[in-house]
Amino acid sequence: MLTASRRIASALVLSLAGTLLAGCATAQPRPKVNALPGQPPTSILFIGNSFFYYNNSMHGHLLRIANADQPKAVPNLRATSVTISGSGLNWHNVEAYFDPTGMASYSFNADNSVSFNKFDRIFDAAIMMDCSQCPVHPTLKPLFHEYAKKHSDTVRKHGAQPVLFMSWAYQDKPEMTAQLAEAYTIAGNDNDALVIPAGLAFAASVAKRPDINLYVPDKRHPSLAGTYLAAATVYATLFNRSPVGNSYTAGLDPEVARHLQTVAWETVQRYHGR
């Protein structure tokens, strides 16, 4: 049972987060790109840092959500993650990631044997995330915009679609939510790129269920619940399909997983105005 002080603290968290989300909905710029053009992507590259690779990698959870959804949006979805610990976008050589003799030129099949691959196009979409503070840091934010453009141009040159991943606020700095939302939305609009509103989904979940901890003790990196919420938000954004009721729960309590699925879907619909 919650003590009186804890009940008051929870109410304050809900009030603050609700006010923040309302502010994001009215004051933040609106995204110009609300969906990827053409058919859903069949191959996805994640470019980022430890926010992606925590909990055995976000791309793995995305694949499991996609494979559990019936009928499948993409029968044979493929995803790869390229991450550097602590990195910003300017640390990544995205041109090298589209070298057909390197990235994805071989893989391992169900029998743990090596398979050699040849793709007409290595990836259909590239999801890019800067360091957790870079888009809003007074010294680093010019690099964020510079490399969001540079890498978006590189991705398009290789026939893929650039996608920006709006990261989340630190647990003890909720004001970062609106700041990151604005920065990523502006960069998305500047580069005609789809934006995944994971940061807004984190804030929405905290507002509704502050008892579900989305963070590990460092207050930056995601708990398993945080990674699952982010992966569900990626799925809802890229495929415009609801993850609500998906049978893959990453081992989370089914009721918790359903809450996170619902938050992901509602956030994507609200942000993209679908």
From TrEMBL:
Keywords from the UniProt entry: Signal
Gene3D superfamilies xrefs: SGNH hydrolase (3.40.50.1110)
PROSITE patterns reported for this sequence: PROKAR_LIPOPROTEIN
Family matches, as SUPFAM superfamilies: SGNH hydrolase (SSF52266)
Nucleus keyword on record: no
The keyword Disulfide bond is annotated on this UniProt entry: no
Signal peptide: 1-27
A molecular function (GO) term: hydrolase activity, acting on ester bonds
Official protein name in the record: SGNH/GDSL hydrolase family protein
Organism listed in the record: Caldimonas thermodepolymerans
Organism phylogeny: Bacteria, Pseudomonadati, Pseudomonadota, Betaproteobacteria, Burkholderiales
